[in-house]
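Ticket reopened. Same input as before:
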Amino acid sequence: MNHRISFRQKPVASFLIAVIFLLATMFNNLFAQTNKNESKINAMVRQMTLEEKVGQMAQVSVESLGKIEGDHFVFDEAKLKDAVQNFKIGSILNSPGEPLTAAQWNAVVEQIQNAAKQTKMKIPVLYGLDDNHGCNYVLGATLFPQQIGQSATWNRQLIFNAGVITAYESRAASVPWTFSPVLDLGTNSQWPRIWEDYGEDPYLDATMGIEFIKGVQDPLGSKDKLAVSIKHYMDYSDPKSGHDRTDSWIPEHYLREYHLPAFAAAVKAGARTVMVNSALINGIPTHINKHLLTGIMKGELHFTGFIVTDWQDIENVYRRDHITNSIKDATKLVINAGIDMSMIPYNYKEFCTDLISLVKEGKVPMSRIDDAVTRILRVKEELNLFQTPMSYLKDYPKFGSEEFQKASYNTAAESITLLKNDNNTLPISKKAKILVTGPNANSMRCLNGGWSYTWQGEKTDVYAKQYNTILEALTNKFGKENVKYQQGVAYNPGWGKFNEDSLVNFDEAVKAAADVDYILLCIGEDSYTETPGNINDMNLSTNQIALAQAMIKTGKPVITILNEGRPRIINEIVPGSKAILDIYLPSNFGADALADILTGDINPSGKLPITYPRYPNSLVSYIHKPSEGGGNPQGGDFDPQWQFGFGLSYTTFAYSDLKINKTTFGPDETATVNVTVKNTGNKEGKEVVQLYTSDLVASITPDVKRLRRFEKVNLKPGESKTITFTLPLKELAFVNNDNKKILEAGDFKIQVENLTTTFNVNKTKLF
Ligand code: BGC
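Engineering reply: fixed in the latest deploy. New output:
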């Protein structure tokens, strides 16, 4: 190669030199700044007493420091002083049981920070809230579809926007820390929190998580950004029982293959805090698992932020899991395992006293305490809390704005997934006469799910009454004269026989179908989260199935709207429904988006981020082994109602020209894959181009297929686009029995829609 710089190249060269110089200066400044911050933090830690350090490691729930009076939260001054000034606690969390306005949150946090200013070290308190789908504990904030719906959009930009808006509105309420995103892998559809996550695929999960984190955090330290807490590290989501906070049985190579990647990607993207799985893995409460917390998270992944427990999880090690004979012993195990902050949330004095004596007794080394405190102070410094402990609503004029609400609407509109559309039943005319029926037809609660205004979301009909239920949105769209409403049945969460008590006005509902053109059957689940959401039966409740069957029997076209947190089994009513839409938990603008989809103002483009099962005893996800279906000579049983990645449109798409740049690659090479997609229908629409790979032979039975890349594209009728995917082959490596990532030589298949091609990797390599 000729390194001489010719005359013509000179400007380019000087430009390059200038860029390199600029980058080097920026890097140096950043490095100097980081060093300065680190020395400042180290100096602080050196000045702190043991009591002050332990206080930083304690997180307390706000309800233990005051109560709601009327529509305000009022601190008990003595309790606040005791916690912040005597015990020097480092963090407060939670809503006091009712949501507050942003201005009320300002007042709450200001009182806390004023109390902190009276302490020797003047360390600001870090307030944290669960922002599962926007700032759901702040009245007037913009709520987004729950994560499962966000993921169903397969649209990175929408998730990024949701992050930006959540951070902005949280800062308007003075809260700089969010316990989101949830990166648990949605592999077990019985689990009551599956709707809080991004679905069952590790790549989709990681991709969406990174977008959200970038939107919330970057650049950390500016006035409209927060620190995230990725949770719940890890494998919380796949308990053997299907119930919340119970044991998961899993070998380490599967943990690393499926559950770790999203967390690893999030740490790489800069996630500043991690919350731990509140349950157990292989009989070991995750909170005492030093291998996962210190070994993998802080060691292998080089995580420099801090790790917080989940709710009361030190106590759980003792009381629930019977691992120790006292809370004090549990505290020892948890802190020595690598936990930096304990979400206590009530009995913080016991935690502080126990930890202080554990250090004095030499059972927890001082170096562990110093490490924890350094990490906590580092995040406070990065958030700029020492300089600016408060932020105020007045500086956030876009809080709750139309612009933000439109972003929520857009997310809902792109999440709604069309699962069935016989003979193009949808869209329907705006002049059609419709019957709206079912327990989900006229409630804001079921549209939002849990973590909405309150923990279980049970008061959403009061707090979100200004937004439209499905009935209200459809009445706006079709006109009052064209809409009839009969609820039909109520929820019947029990299982077994049809429950007479759950009848509301079943017969009237059936009669009302007589003179309409379409029946809009709105069924699913009410709000829940965590343990209260456990179920013993995946079937949709019997009363709802009975209503659906009665409606189908009328002979009028039934359009089934599924509004649920997890995919409840509905196989009995699929054949009789002319069209089926899954709207997940689309939040406050979801019903408006649904109305626009029903009438064709919006062309649906959501795709399932989880497999929709057909049978309760067959909950296998799309990531499975050949023996579990698809090509097993003995006959497999992978026969879901709808596959992961599935979703229809009002237009049609055709794929062609799937091409890979070579047929043989070395393990360090990158493949380039091209595919052309064309809108072959007569309506503009968005399609998600999904690239899957299959490892054809491997030393651990390979998964039938795995998602590796995707791209959502908008196409006008007749328009086509060629999508280029670049795929470093090391991403196809799997975790072997020695817990090492390995790419084994051999043949691979690439699949995009109905097209396939193959290639070969010529050498085995460990990564
Ligand atoms: C949940 C967490 C949540 C925490 C604080 C726990 O019960 O498991 O997801 O962040 O409470 O509200």
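The pocket of beta-D-glucopyranose is lined by residues 93-94, 130, 179, 231, 278, 310-311, 530 (CB under 6 Å). The longest strand covers residues 685-695. Please confirm and we'll close it.
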